[in-house]
Amino acid sequence: MQGALLDSVTCEDGEQLALPDASLTYYPAFYCATRCAELFVHLRAEIPWQQDTLTFGGKTVPVPRLQAWFGDSSSHYGYSGLKLIPQAWTPLLAGLREDLQTRLALPLNSVLLNWYRDGADSVAWHSDDERELGPDPVIASLSFGTARTFELRHKQRHDVQKISLGDGALLVMGSGTQRHWQHRIPKQPGLSGERINLTFRFIHTMA
C-alpha cells in the first residue's frame, strides 16, 4: 500500500510527526554537515562490522546489511533467533550516546549499528518489541550518509507512512510506536550511496 510523507508540526525539541497511536519526533539535522562527514568516516573505519545470518524454516540466510552491537555489559539482546553480545563502548559511540541522553533526557545503554552499503541492503518489516526492551520502548535512530526511505505500517489498519532519513537525521520512536506500528528500510535498486544507522535503546536486565 502506498503511503505519503508524514505531516509534521514544529516544536521546540524537534518536529512532532502526525502518526496515529504513537509518538514520533524528527530532528532533520541533529548534527551539522561537517560533523556528519567526520562521524561517517570514523564509524565506517572503526566499527568491527559483520554480516550475521538468520534461520527461517531451516534455511540460513545472510542479513542484507552489516551490523554491530555495543552496550553496557548487561545489555544482551536478540531478534529472530540471533543473539547479540554487547561489545564495550568505544569513545566515539559513548560520545554519541551522551549527546542523545543530554538532549533527549533518555536512559540509553546499548546501540545497534547497521551499515547499508547501497540500495540492495535493507531491513524487513518488524517492530522492536522484544521482552528485553520493556513494554513500551523508546528508540532513538540516528542516520549518517545517503538518505534512505523509512516506512511505517500500522499493524491493524495496514496504512503506510514514509519518511526520508538523511545525513544527520534523528528519529525518536516514542510511546506506542512499537506496539502499533512496524517499520522497514526497503530496497532501493540503483542507489549507490552508503548509509550508517545507529538505533540507541535501553535493554532491561531479565530475571
Q: Could you explain the architecture of this structure?
A:
Helix content is 15%, strand content 39%. It has a single domain, classed as Alpha-ketoglutarate-dependent dioxygenase AlkB-like (Jelly Rolls, Sandwich). Strand 3 and strand 4 form a beta hairpin. The strands form 4 sheets. Strands 2-3-4-15-12-17-10-7 form an 8-stranded antiparallel sheet. Strands 1-14-13-16-11 form a 5-stranded mixed sheet. Strands 5-6 form a two-stranded antiparallel sheet. It contains 3 helices and 17 strands. The N and C termini lie far apart (41 Å). With 207 residues, it is α+β, with helices and mostly antiparallel strands.
Question: What key attributes describe this structure?
Answer:
3 helices, five-stranded mixed beta sheet, eight-stranded antiparallel beta sheet, 207 residues, 39% strand, 17 strands, Jelly Rolls, alpha+beta
Strand content range: 35-45%
- The global form is globular
Most strands sheet: 8 strands, antiparallel
Helix proportion: 10-25%
| CATH architecture title | Sandwich
Number of strands: 17
Number of domains: 1
Number of helices: 3
CATH homologous superfamily label? Alpha-ketoglutarate-dependent dioxygenase AlkB-like
Mean pLDDT: 90
What value does the Rg take, in angstroms? 16 Å
Alpha carbon gap, first and last residue? 41 Å
Question: Major sheet: order of its strands?
Answer: 2-3-4-15-12-17-10-7
Low-confidence stretches: 1-12
From the structure provided, what is the oligomeric state, counting identical versus distinct chains? Answer: single chain
Element-by-element helix/strand order: EEEEHEEEEEHEEEEEEHEE
* CATH topology value: Jelly Rolls
CATH class: Mainly Beta
